Structure formats: C-alpha cells, structure tokens
Amino acid sequence: MDPIRNPYAPGAGQRPPLLAGRDRELQQFEITLERIAAGRPERSMVLFGLRGVGKTVLLNTLRGQAVRRAWGTGKIEARPDQSIRVPVAQAVHAAIREVGHRHRDPERVDAVAGVLRSFALRTDVDARKGRRWTPPLDVPATQGRADSGDLELDLVELFTDLAALARDLSVGVALFIDEMQDISTDELAALCGACHEISQQGAPLIVVGAGLPHLPVALAASKSYAERLFRYVSVDRLPRDMAASAWTRPAATEGVQFEPDALDVLYRLTDGYPYFVQAYGKATWDAAVTSPITVRDVLTAAPEAGAELAVGFFGARFERATPAEREYMSAMADLGAEHGDAAISTAEVAKHLGRKPQSLSPARDGLIKKGLVYSAQRGKVSFTVPHFGMFLRSR
C-alpha cells in the first residue's frame, strides 16, 4: 500500500481524518453557541478522560465551531506551578483580535484592550516561573479595572468587558483550556468564581476545559458549586462500530477495504482508544500489500505499532519518573494484573512493596503532579494512560 496515501494520523492533538464517535458532543456545542448568542443561559463545559482518548482534538474542533460562527476565541494549555494570569491574558488578546477588527467602534475595542493591558501588567513577575508578558497593544492600561491583584475579581472585570464587546456583534467569546487539572486549587477557585459571576450576568462568554479523569473532583474541591457550574462530558474509548468507521471510511476514500475479521483483531488490540486506533491503522496500512486489508496484515503490523507506542506513548512517560515513582507504578501494574487495571488501593500498593503508606506519599504525589496517575477517589489510584499497566508488565 502506498505509504504516501496513508490516511491515518497518530499524533498528540492531531485531528484524524474522521472524528468518529463525537457527533453528540459537536451537536450539543452548536446548540450551546446558538443559545448563548441568542441571550439564553448555558453552562461552560468540561471534557475529561484518560490520555489518548482525543480530548485535545475535540477541544480544537469545538474551537473551530466557535470560529466559524465568528466568535472570539483563545486557547491556553495549563502547566503545573504556573499562574494562569499570563496565559489567560494571551488567550483574551487573541479573542479581542478576532472580534475587534469587525467592531464599528474602535474606541470600544481600545477600551477593552486597555483593561486587558492592566490585567496583564498586574502579573508583575510570576513568583513561581518568573514570567512577564506585555500585550502588543498600542493603548494605555486602564487604571482601576482588572488590576486589583485578586485573580477572581480581575477575571470577572476582564470577562465582563470582553463579553460586552462580543455582544455588540451578536456573538460570544469562548476560552479553551487544555490540561485544566494542572491549574492550582486557588486559581481554579478564582476561575470558577469568575465563570459563576459571568453566567449570572448572562454575559456571552464560556470556558471550555479539558483534563484528566480527576478534573471534576478538582473543580468540586475548589468551589462547591462547580458541580453545577459546568456541563461535564466524559470522553472515552470508541465503541466497536465507531472504531470500525475510523478505519474503514478514511481507507475507502483511497479505494481500500478491510476484511471484517481484520477489524475485529484491530479492535481487540486497541480497545477502541482513539490514539491506538490511529497508530495501529497507520502501521497496518503500511504493512498491507493490497486491498482488502486482512488479519494477516494486522498481525504483521502489530509489533511495529506496539514498538512505536512503547517508545513514544508509554516509554517517554515512564522515563520522566524517578526510580521511586517507577517502583510505585510497577507495583500498581502488578496489582492491576489481578484487578483488570482498575483503580488500585494505595494501601495495597504499600503492602505489595512492604512499605508504610506514609513513606510512599512522595512518590504517589510526584506521579500525580506529572500526570502519570490520578486519584478520583480517596485511597485509590489509577494510571492516566490506557494500557500502561500492561506496558509495564511486559518490560
């Protein structure tokens, strides 16, 4: 098969040729955009799920929907130990540029830009990362607006003015936040508080976040009303028919077919996880000689796909861990063999290693901070990466 015509796209955040299994989310977001533009109340949205299920791809696609409706948009990727003030300022700057050039009143645009400048300059030097950013705007900072230093109050004032600018054009603003679980608890609380106030105002601005499975728990811990503030969308693996569509429909555009048994084997190897679907699809295409693609082609390609995942998807994450953290993950993997890689009790991990639970807290906390494991319930931990336990057991 011609590798140049290979239609599959395994990559971090790279959109596959067919975004299978996400029609419901896309349709619901279209409704959300229409309702907000019409002045009707709607909640912000949070996508959550394991790594490799396509959260970033879906987040980017939702942003594309907003752009097509002429909304102002901006996107940030949260990072541990970094304040969100500068990234939010940069995202708002992008939104102002998208709606500002269509606004009939340049003075109104400049006024909002001045508020953004005051918000950004209030950053001073981020104590945790030493970051400073000045918006490339030829306007003076607005004194006394979004510059108090209280992040929640400043976000409310900035969002209010930005939403009013979009409302003049009968559109809205959508800010997209990837890796949202990496925002500190205090700043999550400030962001939730600002979203709460904006929603009560009926302002046309929403936040769309994406993160790991424990993100809803983190949001609820920051503000008690966060459970009702957002619409939570679980992004999971694809069912059998949707995974099959992700393989067959792109191939069909190149005149290539799959034997049904080959699709069964592919699904068994990938469990329907979108990143794996693309990785195994790409390797199978390259291994196949002609159409239709057979079980033999899939089995021939499987070691190549597995080796690529072992290096780029699993191995890179494993190498980030310290020896103590690797020991902790190996214990989780051993125990997972008995529990089907379900959530593992931290007490069981300690018992397996012959250690006291308190002595393992630094390793567990380090893994959570690095996004390798998560704790959706007290006393339990799980891998953030599907099949990671299986990978560790195979080493």
From TrEMBL:
Protein's UniProt keywords contain ATP-binding: yes
Region feature (Disordered): 1-20
Family annotation (Pfam families): AAA_16
Annotated coiled-coil segments of the chain: none
Segments forming domain Orc1-like AAA ATPase: 19-208
Family annotation (Gene3D superfamilies): P-loop containing nucleotide triphosphate hydrolases
Keyword annotations from UniProtKB, A to Z: ATP-binding, Nucleotide-binding
GO terms of molecular function: ATP binding
Name this protein carries in UniProt: ATP-binding protein
